[in-house]
Amino acid sequence: LFFALIYRPPPEDADAASRREPLTVAAVAGLLRQPWMRNAIVAGLALVSAQYGILTWLMLDLRDHTHIALTRGAFFLALAQAAGAIGRIALAAWSDRTPALRFRLLTLSMIAIAAGVLVLMVTPSRTPEPALAVLATWLGFFGLGWYGPWVAYLAETAPADKVGLTLGAAMAINQLGIIAAPPLLGLVHDLTGSYAALWACVVGVHGVAYGLTGMTRQR
């Protein structure tokens, strides 16, 4: 609200402003119907749900399944976050070298996250800590590092006069995944008493998202 009160748009050419499509609900709905936008939204929701699932539940899973104290589990969560910071730079740099493959990097991230979560599901209770550190690094690198290519894909695919609107709409929808994922996954755990069921939901969401984006791209 404070930003809205103080913001003043920069001066622009009157002819360009007159040619710009007015911002209406129909204009936003039309943008959301575009196949490339649906791809970004579906992938973004899946990826951000996994990201916040990992941030919320990794330490608790390690505590209850592998008997690692929360104070020690915080090390693995910090390791995952550090790997995610590196991933945001590395994956973005990779996508800059091959801009045509930006969306493939997102699908690669979905596959990598699902694979890492599956490994976490079958991890024995007495797994050595170095192996857990590798797993946390893997989950963090892909589970948090996907964001750079996702933003770049949206910015490059959007119409030139709708880049801001496209990013704003996609990020707003992504907030649904951020808000919903931790409590919904927690509900699954409470109902089943199992972290395996919780992580299976993450894998299932990624499988559905991968299938939906693949079908859209083929069409």
**Proportion of residues in helical segments:** over 70%
Radius of gyration: 20 Å
Structural class: mainly alpha
Question: Mean pLDDT, nearest integer?
Answer: 88
What count of helical segments does DSSP give?
10
Strand content: under 5%
Measured distance between first and last alpha carbons: 41 Å
Number of strand elements: 0
Query: Spans of 5+ residues with little confidence (pLDDT < 50)?
Result: none
Q: Could you spell the SSE succession in H and E letters? A: HHHHHHHHHH
Morphology call? elongated
Which sheet architecture does the biggest sheet show?
none
Oligomer: single chain
Describe the structure.
The structure is a single chain. By secondary structure, this protein is mainly alpha-helical. 82% of the residues lie in helices and 0% in strands. It has 10 helices and no strands. The chain has helices spanning 2-6, 14-19, 25-32, 35-65, 70-97, 102-121, 129-145, 147-157, 163-192, 195-218. Helix 4 (35-65) runs antiparallel to helix 7. The longest helix is centred in the N-terminal third of the chain and has 31 residues, at 35-65. The protein is elongated, with a radius of gyration of 20 Å. The relative contact order is 0.17. The model has no long low-confidence stretch (mean pLDDT 88).
